[in-house]
Model the fold of this input.
Amino acid sequence: MLGAHDALSAKLAEEAGFDAIWGSGFGISAVSALPDANILTMSETLDAIRRMVEAVRIPVIADCDNGFGNAINVIRTVAQYERAGVAGLCIEDNIFPKRCSFYAGVQRELVPVEEHARKIEAATSARRDPDFVIIARTEAFIAGWGKQEALKRARAYAEAGADAVLIHSKASTFDELKDFAGAWDSPCPLVAVPTTYASITAGDLSAAGFKLVIFANQALRAAVKAMRESLTILKREARPAAVDDRIATLPEIYELVGVPDLQANEQKFLLPGGHNVTAVIIAAGFEESLMPLIEDRPKAMLEIKGKTILERQVQALNDCGVKDVVVVRGYRKEQIDLPNIRYYDNDRFRDTGELVSLFLAESEMSRRFLFLYSDIIFDPAILEKLLKSEAEVSVVVDRAWGDHPHSQEEVHTRQPDLVVTHHPPQKGYRFLAMNEGTTLARVGRRLPLAEADGEFVGMAMFSEDGARLLRTVYHQSQQRFPNQRFHESESLEKAAFTDILQEIINCGGPVACVDIYKGWLEIDTFEDYRRAWAKVK
Ligand code: SPV
Ligand code: MG
Done:
């Protein structure tokens, strides 16, 4: 067993492969900067033990000193500790209040052997589970009372019903205990704590007849030495990196305290909200038609009244609680360097399309995520509406498209992503919440104008299942469409986001529409850019 002083040291002991935890009274007191002398109360000690039990799966045996009083106190001690989930406890024949076995120059008294035997009986009678282990410990050697007294006491405790006897020694060699073990004539197993005779091995102890060994305080002492050394250096150098090679990394701590579980449980059990969604913004492309406007920067970094398009997007996302933002860069990637954003780079942006850029960020698609074109400015209310969607795949559709006729020429220059939907909203009722059950039938830049009943805004959201569907459809498409057209694009490599949306629809995955009416701008042409300057406040 490894002596732990708190939940974290118990966890490290478990990780190191020890069979059980010794909830050390010495250690629990020490981490409160107090001596091991019954200064902490039973409930304070129990509190520390309970945290250890909660942190590990291996058994925890609690060091209960003298049981925190007489036999009457022991009854409650056993009840409380058993309820806390410990596998057993140890009670020593020190008087209450105790003194640690090793402290020199302090008063040391043991209770009479009969009194301690009754305490052991009280302990066994108080347990509910017969497998709950009661270890009786004698301090006869510690008090200097010799082998005969130690044997007398150990025998009395074994007869009183102890499951094991801890025979403690502060000698610098193992001789005293070896002698004791040689004379031990009871089937009751023996326990040793080799703190002062520390060069002994567990194997030596086993050979001498001991069944259980406690390394009681090495974890605590390792921590103190490591902290003291690092802190001395840190104070002297006044620079955190000076101790980098002596300290655990932050990810090590995250792992130890269960951050991966926290993340998984957040996904599973917290209601969806802006905070647990990642936004993936595709900003890799280069558009000849916007030269020379975008000569020195990508479109997303075009400034409109003191703020770039990307800054405006990030602001809107943050305002809606979406703090995790990913940008896929390509053309003039060095120009995109906003803080608090994670980046992926598509260095093949000239030969590839939006879909390739999106899938560079595939590792983001293990959970709910938002998809955004990088050239749109939108009212945050649109984002809020999208975030509320419970569909697996949702796209924002502007129904203002149908308000007035569009010329072929306009469509040719602007190339809007058009949609044909099932159950489009009735004209004239567009301000009602009418996005229930509306789904995409077709999407693309070359749909017949007469059939289009909305425009895809360039904002989409995928639930965890939706993200899985997207990945599956994409990877299947790689198999099914090698070196050939993929919907409106000449190949999958050059495909647009709308092509994969169409493929999802064709594969039977519904794509839900989040209907809006205006409230957004797209910067596709000089004219758009000029208009944005006029419209944006
Ligand atoms: C403890 O770890 O608190 C013990 C063992 O009781 S010892 O400190 O060796 O007494
Ligand atoms: Mg102790």
